[in-house]
């Protein structure tokens, strides 16, 4: 019940965010993007993380019909407790800590990576996955775009996905902007965009151009509120929390892997035939290294 209440609050914040004062907009975005932290932290800590006063959080609670901040936070706290029960531990991770300070640090890193993957896959519901696969497969042309560090994710998705989906295109293909290659993208097409903070200006421009052209948009990010005037047809949220300075892409990677599985699976025999053709072509031209068998000396 608490998880449902939490989701209802997030949906209300998402629908109201554009009409809220600037400080309450910041608070709403933080709650939507950091539901776990919001369930754990006190009002003072939450206010410091957002960069607003505690009174702003009280005003947001009042706007939502709650009598206090604690009443607004309670569904998030209960959902978090239900999510992390005592049966979820893995002994092998706990044993890593026995290897001293480095082992303890490594155990924290491993636990964080596993949590990111679990949370991202949990957010990838059956309905969202099926919608994404249908949009990509039914499009006249499907485009995947990203820039900077996340370009590697887009490149991999295109590299594998095009074997199952021949009308899948990577933009930008070279050292340009996605906009340079979107002149023919229209209403019958789909754009899959990947962006994480700090959000790429090029990707945001591509998203705006896509909507102006009537193109359906799938966004993979940590937030649906990446910039003003961004509208998407399908939002796939991933968790990015990292123990180092940069975002962790493990969650985004498993979401893309899941989509690839369904694209190949739904592609049927045609997809399998294309994959076999790619493999045969690469082998014919020596794309893969192969160890040479040693020559036996004749006695």
What's the helix and strand layout?
Blueprint: H1 2-16, H2 22-33, H3 35-40, H4 43-50, H5 54-63, H6 69-83, H7 91-96, H8 101-123, H9 126-138, E1 142-145, H10 151-164, E2 168-171, E3 190-194, H11 201-212, E4 216-221, E5 234-237, H12 250-284
Parallel strand pairs: 1-2, 1-3, 3-4, 4-5
Molecular structure report:
The chain is an alpha/beta fold. It folds into two domains: 2-83, Arc Repressor Mutant, subunit A; 126-284, Rossmann fold (3-Layer(aba) Sandwich). 57% of the residues lie in helices and 8% in strands. It contains twelve helices and five strands. The chain has helices at 2-16, 22-33, 35-40, 43-50, 54-63, 69-83, 91-96, 101-123, 126-138, 151-164, 201-212, 250-284; strands spanning 142-145, 168-171, 190-194, 216-221, 234-237. The chain has a five-stranded parallel sheet, with helices on both faces. α11 (201-212) links the parallel β3 (190-194) and β4 (216-221). α1 packs across α6 (69-83), α8 packs across α12 (250-284) and α10 (151-164) crosses α12. The chain is globular. The relative contact order is 0.10. The mean pLDDT is 88.
By CATH reckoning, the class of the largest domain would read: Alpha Beta
- Mean pLDDT across the residues is 88
State which percent range the strand residues make up.
5-15%
| Helix and strand element order | HHHHHHHHHEHEEHEEH
Shape: globular
Tell me the radius of gyration. Answer: 23 Å
| Main sheet record | 5 strands, parallel
Query: What is the β-strand count?
Result: 5
Oligomer: single chain
Poorly predicted tracts of residues: none
Strand order of the largest sheet: 2-1-3-4-5
Helical percent range?
55-70%
Total tally of structural domains: 2
Q: CATH topology of the largest domain, which one?
A: Rossmann fold
Secondary-structure arrangement, i.e. CATH architecture of the largest domain: 3-Layer(aba) Sandwich
């Amino acid at each position: 019940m608490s998880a449902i209440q939490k989701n209802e609050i997030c949906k209300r914040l998402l629908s109201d965010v554009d009409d809220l004062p600037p400080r309450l907009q910041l608070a709403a975005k933080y709650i939507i993007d950091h539901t776990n932290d919001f369930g754990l932290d006190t009002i003072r800590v939450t206010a410091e993380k957002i960069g607003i006063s505690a009174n702003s959080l009280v005003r947001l609670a009042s706007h939502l019909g709650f009598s206090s901040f604690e009443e607004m936070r309670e569904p998030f706290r209960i959902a978090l407790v239900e999510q992390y029960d005592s049966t979820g531990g893995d002994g092998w991770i706990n044993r890593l800590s026995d290897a001293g300070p480095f082992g303890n640090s490594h155990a924290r890193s491993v636990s964080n990576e596993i949590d990111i993957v679990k949370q991202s896959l949990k957010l990838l519901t059956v309905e969202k996955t099926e919608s994404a696969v249908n949009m990509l497969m039914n499009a006249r042309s499907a485009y995947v775009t990203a820039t900077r560090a996340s370009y590697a994710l887009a490149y991999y998705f295109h590299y594998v996905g095009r074997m199952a989906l021949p009308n899948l295109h990577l933009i930008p293909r070279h050292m340009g902007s996605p906009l340079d290659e979107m002149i023919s993208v229209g209403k019958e097409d789909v754009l899959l965009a990947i962006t994480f903070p700090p959000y790429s200006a090029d990707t945001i421009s591509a998203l705006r151009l896509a909507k102006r052209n009537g193109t359906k948009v799938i966004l993979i990010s940590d937030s649906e509120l990446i910039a003003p005037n961004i509208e998407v047809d399908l939002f796939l949220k991933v968790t990015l929390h990292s123990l180092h300075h940069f975002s962790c892409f493990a969650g985004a990677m498993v979401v893309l892997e899941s989509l690839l599985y369904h694209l190949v699976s739904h592609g049927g025999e045609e997809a399998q035939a294309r994959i076999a053709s790619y493999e045969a072509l690469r082998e014919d031209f020596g794309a893969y290294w192969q160890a040479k068998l040693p020559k036996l000396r004749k006695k």
